[in-house]
Amino acid sequence: MNDDELIASARAAALKAYAPYSRFHVGCAILSADGEVVTGANMENACYRLGICAEQSALTAAQHAFGLDKVARIAVAGGVVAGELTGEQPVTPCGGCRQAILEAAQLGGGDIAILCASGDGHEVEEHTIFSLIPHGFGPANLAGAS
After folding, report:
1. Taking the model in full, what pTM does it have?
2. How far apart are CA 95 and CA 80, in angstroms?
3. Contact indicator for 36, 63 with CB cutoff of 8 Å
4. What are the pLDDT digits (tens) for 81-93?
5. Domain-embedded: residue 142
6. Exactly one of 36, 44, 55, 103 is catalytic; which is it?
């Protein structure tokens, strides 16, 4: 799967978001090392803090489908739905999602590329999780804690 297809999968997932409060739909597509793709979308809740981000939703699907250690590449896209997904600014993972992606990277033993796309898909930034959270705390930091 190429980058454009992965971004298209993230954009399609965003259309399935449940975002009645913010009206900001986010989708995430995760490509495994073996070529399998899973997606997730944000799900809001009237209690606000009980919602879930698209990246967390997709990471959960990835764990069930092929394991977090096999996450190879991620695409995130978000914006407002006006018949289709719109928006001109690339969307990056929030801090909590960056932490969760870092954990997947550490479990897999390498960095993970993240394609951050605008809602309309025209603007894309590529980052790695190690660049987005350079001094992250994860499983590797707990190696001697047993």
Report:
1. 0.94
2. 21
3. no
4. 999 999 999 999 9
5. no
6. 55
